[in-house]
Amino acid sequence: MKSVNLARKILSNKKLSLIQLPLIIGMGSYISANYSSSFKDTKIFSEAEKPKYKKQLNKEQLKQTLSPIQYEVTQEKGTERPWTGIHLDVKNPGTFKCVVCDQDIFSSKTKFESGSGWPSFYDVVNSDRVNLIEDRSYGMRRIEVACSNCGSHLGHVFDDGPKPTGLRYCINSASLDFKPDVNKN
Q1: At residue 37, does pLDDT exceed 50?
Q2: What is the CATH number of the domain that holds 154?
Q3: Which of 43, 45, 152, 161 could join 74 in a cystine, given CB atoms 3.0 to 4.6 angstroms apart?
């Protein structure tokens, strides 16, 4: 737990540059050069491939409807500061949806505390809800997670998660809306 608190302190430093932040994020967890066997049955698009999206986005309209951080994260592949996201500590039963198109992406049942500073999930509600795209930015080799409906950037997935999948979907709160389950009594 001490290492988690130390990482939290380092990563919450507001003086980190935009280059330092991704490098620090990649220090503790990365995907090996040949990608994990956890992804063996999953299509991973190369950076050159362009997945087809059902919903076409109007960037000017999105700038009006999304907050600045939501736009930066979802449309410019940004990363919110660790331990600042509104969904980091959400523990209520419910569904996490794409903030842009409202598609269900994650269930709170698969959310876990990873110590990374971002909401983490070990699985998606359905594998067709996300596209996995090779990401070689910042000198790292990672797998980007994008909404399969609208193409919005959600975060990245790593192969250091808990059972049963062994995956850790490290997701920006700014890319998600949370819809609590309605208790029908």
Answers
A1: no
A2: 2.170.150.20
A3: 152
